[in-house]
Amino acid sequence: MQGTVSGLVASYGYVVLFFLVGLESLGIPLPGETALVTAAAFAALGHLSIYGVVTTAVAAAVIGDNGGYWIGRKGGIALVRRYGRFLHLNEAHLERARHFFGRHGPPTVFIGRFIALLRTWTAVLAGAARMPYGRFMLYNALGAACWAGAVGALGYVFGRNLPRLEHYMGQASLAAALLVALVAGLWLGWRWFERNRTSLVTRTARFARGEYLGLHLTLGLVISLAGLWVFAGVTEDVIHHDPLTQFDVALLDWLHARATATGYAVFNAISLLGSPVTLTILALAVALLLAARRELIVLAGWLAAFAGGGLLDVVLKLVIRRPRPPGAAAFLQHFSWSFPSGHAMASLIGYGMLAYVLTLLWIHRRSAQIAVVLGAALLIIAIGFSRLYLGVHYFSDVVGGYAAGVLWLSACVSGLEVARGWRAGLPSAAPSKAP
Question: Residue 267 pLDDT more than 70?
């Protein structure tokens, strides 16, 4: 079986990578970045060439973005007139986009390559805004090369089991403290931003006088780097069997000694809320509702979050290959690797996105929004703890799943917020001058 998979990867890996990255760049929301990480990991295992992977990704990104650019340039006005009502777009929005790309096109094209969802639409928007083709090509090629090199290198390092990663977190207490600090920081940062959104948009010169884009790119990048830092530190401890893995075993033994039949029944039910079946049903139900309401931008981000998260979980498990705890087979229907916890990652992405969509589209009262966010957080924590109680994951598996989930969720939400800002007519075409 393993030989068959290796042969398929060697035969079709470059083709699949080219189509996923190219179609994503063309404007179709597919997990191109996750495909690049997967291909780079297979390159580290000897099934592909890392140079071939990076070259294929660069070529696919440039070609796809060129197609998206000319689709927007030749058909932008016609597409808006025909389909704009479904996305709440009109010709005035294109005029604003034209002014924006005239002033800030190069950094937008370059940085947009690193942001989920924005990566899908930047070329189309640049074409519709009639950004000069030569300037677009230059920064598009630079962004594609830097993106493919950086993401490919990350996947390749994970494929080699991170042998040279510095020791960021050696103690379980530090890992737990970082996780708590990250969750608290995200919550406090979200509340602070909601209270100060107007003043930030209108007064902060750093974000170019009212431009919505810079703030979300910055916040998304900071949160993503925090998630990556936590994930890298925990992964290094798991691979090198550092003190965190000793804490894993001690906590598992402590919980097992105090487990009861009733506890197993309760936490098995909670664990099912984070299962692939439950989250697939949730993803499809909300997707149908968003399609019925013609919230197509949110729908694209919603589907990208679930699809990319699922693929990321599979890739990380195959790369790390950590065995399950002893006795885990009693609660598992099929074999899979232990690190990171798929339930922890998927529940954070799924219920985090659900809370975001609910507070964005349907729940606008502040107290109700807070209740939704807290409820989602408690459910996510409960699902993670259920995996520990049942003995199917170690503590570091759950922490790693949360960190990877935060990384992907922040990228998706940042991309969605930027895309919604464009749809709403932000950034403005002619910022007002200070008196």
Answer: yes
Structural contact between residues 245 and 394, judged by C-beta atoms closer than 8 angstroms: yes
- The number of angstroms, rounded, from the C-alpha of 431 to the middle of its chain's C-alpha atoms is 32
**Of 21, 402, 105, nearest to 393 (Cα)?**
402
Residue partners of 67: CB distance under 8 A and separation at least 6: 22, 25, 26, 123
CA torsion 258→264→265→270, rounded to 10°?
110
CA 337 to chain centre: 21
**DSSP per-residue string spanning 126-191:** HHHTT--HHHHHHHHHHHHHHHHHHHHHHHHHHHTT-TT------SHHHHHHHHHHHHHHHHHHHH
List residues with catalytic annotation: 343, 393
Dihedral sign for Cα atoms in the order 113, 115, 119, 123: negative
Q: Quick check: 72 pLDDT over 80?
A: no
CA-to-CA distance for 132 and 136, rounded, in angstroms?
6
pLDDT at 431 over 50: no
pLDDT tens across 352-384, in order? 999 999 998 888 888 898 999 999 999 999 999
pTM, entire model: 0.55
Question: Nearest-CA neighbor of 119 among 425, 427, 419?
Answer: 419
End-to-end CA distance of the chain: 71
C-alpha distances in Å from residue 118, one per residue of 68, 89, 121, 213, 408: 13, 16, 5, 10, 14
Q: Is the pLDDT of residue 433 over 80?
A: no
Averaged pLDDT, 270-280 = 90
Question: Between 366-389 and 395-423, two packed helices, what is the crossing angle to 10 degrees?
Answer: 150
As a whole number of angstroms, the distance between CA 31 and CA 311 comes to 8
The residue ranking higher by pLDDT, 90 or 404, is 404
